[in-house]
Amino acid sequence: MKNSKKVSKKKTDPLERDLSSLFDKKGWKKVRFELRPKNKSITIRISEEMLEAIKAKAEDEGLDYQKWIRSSIEDALNRSA
Fold this sequence. Notes:
Blueprint: H1 48-60, H2 65-80
Helix pairs in contact: 1-2
C-alpha cells in the first residue's frame, strides 16, 4: 500500500497572490502614471522666489518642476472632490 498525501491540483497564478506583506513600505513614494497626453498649455505668472521654491520641492521629491505642479493641482482637485 502506498503512502501518499493529497496534493491540491489547483494552480495558483503567482500574480494573483498578495505579496505586499513581504515588503517594507517605509520610504515608498506614491507613483503617478501620466498616461493622458498633455495637449493644453497654460501660462501663469509667479514670483521668481516661488518658482525657485517649487523647483526645490520638486527636486526633493524626485520630479521635474512641471510634473510637480501638475501633481499638486491634481492633489488639490482630489481633495476638493
